[in-house]
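Students often ask why we bother encoding 3D structure as a string. The short answer is that it lets us treat folding as translation between two languages. Here is a chain of 117 residues written in the first language.
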Amino acid sequence: QVQLVESGGGLVQPGGSLKLSCVVSGSIFSPKDMGWYRQAPGKQRELVATITSVGRTYYADSVKGRFTISRDNAENTVFLQMNSLNPEDTAVYYCNADLPYLGRNFWGQGTQVTVSS
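And here it is in the second language, the structure alphabet:
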């Protein structure tokens, strides 16, 4: 059974940094595309960043220059380095993995990121 488990969230002051990790277990193949999404209270889930199996990245305008997505294909893990955090980055962050051999995407349970002084 495929599972995605995120870690690394927490409380951080404005201007601080956090690094999120997401491990994909139970898959016999490495995911094609992997990504991070977030959902703030009262708002829809939005795309933060994605990365393909060959390392091509995409970022939402709101995080460009501050966040960096990366992955370790050998460990089926995706990371999100978040710098210069501000209160508008407060949200639950979700990991997503595309597994074409199973015909669907998978989601993690989410990890809370709170930016507050």
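Translate back mentally: The mean pLDDT is 96. Keep this in mind for the problem set.
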